[in-house]
Amino acid sequence: MEHLSTNGNEKKSLSPAEEQKIRQAFQEKDWNEIKSNDSWALFKIMGEFVAGFERLATIGPCVSIFGSARTKPDSKYYKMTEEIASSLVEQGYGIISGGGPGIMEAANKGARKAGGKSVGLNIILPHEQSHNIYIDPDKLISFDYFFVRKVMFVRYSQGFIAMPGGFGTLDEIFEAITLIQTQKIGKFPIVMVGKKFWGGLIDWLKDTVLQAENNVSEEDFELFHVVDDPQEAVDIIDDFYGKYLLSPNFEF
């Protein structure tokens, strides 16, 4: 099976595993097979929710840090993430990451270095990722389902920081923005770090999504901050709670 690449010209073949998944999607299934498969999936999903709720219910106030698994330790963003995580821990917050390498590793490393809570919500993938070594042993949770994992990020975080990343990072940070925009969760602080990295996306949102298509409101741009300085990222989160006379040891 072949498909066009994004340039519209070059054809690329799907792997046998990819072909099989597509063929399975078109196969007719009888009711017993559907019922059996769906029932098993339902119990597995419930099990992941229960495990996540039980393990995370007592962690206290935390900040989720999103970013690429491909970022190397010598990257300036890796070092910035370590600094941000350590500073947040010193202010009384725990750190939640996706549990893997790259930015996620830097987040957990910074939390561990400062002696704070270091949580990893690992996702089980066929080609990546193994969890990093800086997660507290009792705070490592692995998931098969992305959507269950995202619920845990949102439910147990009091702030979100997005470092440069790929599709997964965009998915996670836009999920948080959407839930705040639609008032499904509280207006928690969101910070994107790296003006050069995020600038093109923000320009597109303003020029195309807002002005050309009117698909968002100007007020929606107040839901997040874009900064370059690690301390500014920390201050935005800490000042937000200071404004409401709250400190990181508050209870929900």
Task: Give a nutshell description of this structure.
With 252 residues, the chain is α/β, with parallel strands linked by helices. Helix content is 48%, strand content 14%.
Task: Describe this entry's structure for a reader.
- The protein has 252 residues and is α/β, with parallel strands linked by helices.
- It has a single domain, classed as Rossmann fold (3-Layer(aba) Sandwich), CATH 3.40.50.
- It contains eight helices and nine strands.
- It has helices at residues 16-26, 31-56, 76-90, 103-113, 146-155, 167-181, 195-212, 230-243, and strands at residues 2-4, 11-13, 62-66, 94-97, 118-123, 140-143, 160-162, 190-193, 225-227.
- Strand 4 (94-97), helix 4 (103-113) and strand 5 (118-123) form a beta-alpha-beta unit.
- Helix 3 runs parallel beside helix 4 and helix 3 (76-90) packs parallel to helix 8 (230-243).
List keywords for this structure.
252 residues, alpha/beta, Rossmann fold, 7-stranded parallel beta sheet, two-stranded antiparallel sheet, 8 helices
CATH topology: Rossmann fold
> Any idea what the shape is?
globular
Instruction: Count the DSSP helices.
Output: 8
Count the domains. Answer: 1
Radius of gyration: 20 Å
Biggest sheet: strand arrangement:
6-5-4-3-7-8-9
Which CATH class? Alpha Beta
Taken in chain order, the helices and strands follow as EEHHEHEHEEHEHEHEH
Number of β-strand runs: 9
Helix content: 40-55%
**N-C termini distance:** 52 Å
Low-confidence stretches: none
Strand portion: 5-15%
Architecture per CATH nomenclature, i.e. the level-2 architecture: 3-Layer(aba) Sandwich
Q: What's the main sheet like?
A: 7 strands, parallel
Mean pLDDT across all residues, rounded?
Answer: 89
SSE class: alpha/beta
